[in-house]
Write a structure and sequence with these properties.
binds flavin-adenine dinucleotide, five-stranded antiparallel β-sheet, Uridine Diphospho-n-acetylenolpyruvylglucosamine Reductase, domain 2, Uridine Diphospho-n-acetylenolpyruvylglucosamine Reductase, domain 3
Length: 500
């Protein structure tokens, strides 16, 4: 399905250099690491809010559908694809201004095109006392797009949506909405008090198709005096529920505040063999003043040993990582790289390595990658469960038996994103052939169906998979569709996203 668009009208807004409808560009946006293709009609690159407003006016009169991306690095969730073929992709990568970093109050205001690397380098260069939370999606992935999808990171600020203070967005009638205290120009706590006054709108602007977000203020974490990563390996498959229960208690009591990852061996080290890797490999971090970290270390060790006495536990700090790096240069330790990647993520340092490992391409760069060129495809399957041993065990067993039944390898992580919930992320890898792609997508659909029937719902979805998400309850569905009809009666923004 193509849309009737006037390139002349779009060029009059964006100039010819920021409007593209050539086959080479379109194929980049159409293809994805998941293997399917969804051809847009054209791509535009706004540089400010006034261009977005002009685009929206044109879209409403010419019945164009718009799909917004921040940097389009939504790997495994449809990447830069829209919800339907023939849409105008609104690529905000050129709206990449770091509007403010406030050292005293520890926040940053950024535009959607700011990448993880961009903000990281900015903080480094300005010798900031602050660090950001990063995801494993690579240097070029955006911060705003990920947060809008309620993605998660690895540090104490890993629950990223919880760190949003306010947003600015353009609605489908061209009006500008500011959440929190953002709409009160003289509000003293505009960038620090997220609740504002009256109903909170931020939730409605995430995982939705109600607005184009042009600015976001997020909290940044003061760099701790000391970070100590804990790495735990457990040889027994049955250790998972025991460790999950222990981590829940450590997080509930505030001893551990970082996201904690439980990776099976296939996820942690792939096909390689290493006798230090267990069936389950857990990592998280404790950070803060040195004395506090040392005290917490003792508590973590004893809680984990009590829960699972056979656990092997290592605590790794800056000094140990330096030593490991030195030894690795001479002896090449196979576990060094996975440890270093986990360490970097815990310290808020973005890296392309997880992507490189996934696509088996050591020289890959997230900034220039064309995923359609790879013979390897993959897609994510995810689900949320309560952080108790029984739930995690049931979710693990359900999913692993589905994978086994269909002959897919089963790399999986469970991430304790908050004290009370875990997010399971697994993926299937397959070849870029028509048959394997069709089989993979059918499997993903089946898997989500079974998980949903059992109460394990996805935490996010993406292009091509929104139909796999569960129906909302009647009242909720009516409310969301009612809001959509009110704020975007022509369904100009991403129709069908999250079933709205
Ligand atoms: C190896 C690997 C590791 C990964 N690790 C992680 C991880 O640790 N955590 C995680 O959460 N994800 C992870 N991902 C998944 C994904 O790549 C990231 O979530 C990535 O950050 C999303 O891409 P982006 O930030 O460029 O967002 P985009 O693709 O730009 O945006 C994502 C979606 O948000 C919406 N959107 C974006 N900008 C706007 C806007 N301004 N207004 C309105 N809507 C907007 C759109 O629907 C868009 O499709 C990983 C993927 C891979 C392959």
């Amino acid at each position: 399905m193509g849309q009737e668009y006037s390139s002349g009208s779009l060029i009059s807004i964006f100039g010819s250099e920021r409007f593209r409808d050539d086959a080479h560009t379109l194929s980049k946006y159409a293809s994805s690491i998941g293997g399917n293709s969804l051809m847009p009609c054209c791509v535009v690159y706004p540089i400010d809010e006034s261009e977005i407003v002009a685009l929206i006016k044109l879209a409403n009169t010419d019945s164009l559908q718009l799909f917004t991306i921040a940097r389009g690095r939504n790997f495994g969730y449809g990447e830069a694809q829209g919800t339907h073929a023939g849409q105008v992709i609104v690529d905000l990568s050129k709206m990449n201004r770091i509007v403010e970093v406030n050292e005293t109050l520890a926040y940053a205001t950024i535009q959607p095109g700011v990448s993880q690397q961009h903000l990281f380098e900015h903080l480094q260069k300005s010798d900031s006392r602050l660090q950001l939370d990063v995801t494993g999606a690579g240097l070029d992935a955006s911060i705003v797009g990920n947060i809008l999808e309620r993605g998660f990171g690895h540090t104490d600020y890993g629950d990223r949506f919880a760190r949003v203070v306010r947003m600015t967005g353009v609605m489908a009638d061209g009006s500008v909405v500011k959440t929190g205290f953002g709409g009160f120009e003289n509000a003293n706590a505009k960038n620090t008090y997220k609740y504002g006054l009256g109903p909170m709108l931020d939730g409605l602007l995430s995982q939705s198709n109600f607005a184009i977000i042009t600015e976001m203020t997020i909290e940044l974490m003061p760099k701790p005096d000391k970070t100590c990563m804990f790495v735990v390996s457990a040889k027994d498959e049955s250790a998972l529920p025991l460790l999950v229960d222990a981590i829940r208690e450590l997080k509930l009591s505030g001893i551990v505040n970082s996201a904690v990852h439980f990776a099976n061996k296939a996820r942690a080290i792939g096909e390689k063999e290493n006798r230090m890797a267990g069936f389950w490999n857990m990592s998280g971090s404790i950070s803060g003043p040195t004395d506090m970290v040392m005290a917490k270390k003792r508590i973590v060790r004893s809680a984990l040993k009590k829960a699972y006495p056979k656990a092997s536990i290592w605590f790794i700090d800056e000094f140990m990582m330096g030593l490991a790096s030195f030894v690795n240069r001479i002896f090449k330790i196979s576990l060094y790289q996975p440890l270093k990647d986990a360490w970097d993520l815990q310290k808020g340092i973005p890296t392309d390595n997880p992507l490189r490992i996934l696509l088996a391409d050591e020289s890959l760069e997230s900034a220039t990658i064309r995923t359609g060129d790879y013979q390897t495809c993959f897609l994510w399957i995810n689900a949320v469960c309560a952080a108790d041993g029984c739930s995690v065990e049931q979710l693990y067993e359900l999913t692993s038996s589905l994978f086994k039944e269909h002959g897919y390898a089963f790399p999986v992580t469970f991430t304790a994103i908050n004290p009370r919930s875990l997010i399971m992320i697994t993926n299937i890898n397959y070849l870029r052939s028509e048959d394997s792609i069709a089989k993979a997508h059918a499997f993903s659909k089946r898997c989500h169906e079974v998980l949903i029937q059992n109460g394990y719902l996805p935490y996010r979805s993406g292009s091509g998979a929104f139909e796999e998400t569960p129906e909302y309850a009647t009242g909720t569905s009516a409310l969301l569709k009612g809001i959509k009809g009110l704020v975007d009666p022509n369904y100009t923004f991403a129709p069908g996203k999250y079933r709205i």
